[in-house]
Design brief:
Elements lengths: L2 H10 L1 H21 L6 H29 L5
Helix pairs in contact: 1-2, 2-3
Length: about 70
C-alpha cells in the first residue's frame, strides 16, 4: 500500500482514515510477531488471519478512493 497516497485521502475522508489507522495497527502487530525467532502454531495462524484482514482493509480503502475520486489503483 502506498501510504503517502492513501494519507492524502485519509485527510479528506474519515472512513478512509479509520480504515487506514486499522491497517497500520494490524501491520504493526504482524511486524511484532514476525520479529520472533519462532512462532507457535497459534501465532502462525494469527499472522495469517491478520494478513488477510489487512488485505481486506486495503481493498476496501482502494474501493472507497475509487468511489469518491474515480481514481483507479493497481
Amino acid at each position: 500500500m502506498d501510504k503517502e497516497f492513501v494519507k492524502k485521502f485519509a485527510e479528506k475522508y474519515s472512513d478512509i482514515k479509520d480504515l487506514f489507522e486499522k491497517h497500520q495497527a494490524l501491520e504493526k502487530e504482524v511486524d511484532e510477531l514476525s520479529k520472533k525467532l519462532y512462532l507457535t502454531q497459534e501465532e502462525e495462524v494469527k499472522v495469517k488471519q491478520l494478513k488477510k484482514e489487512k488485505l481486506h482493509i486495503k481493498e476496501k480503502i482502494y474501493q472507497l478512493i475509487k468511489n469518491y475520486e474515480g481514481v483507479e489503483i493497481d
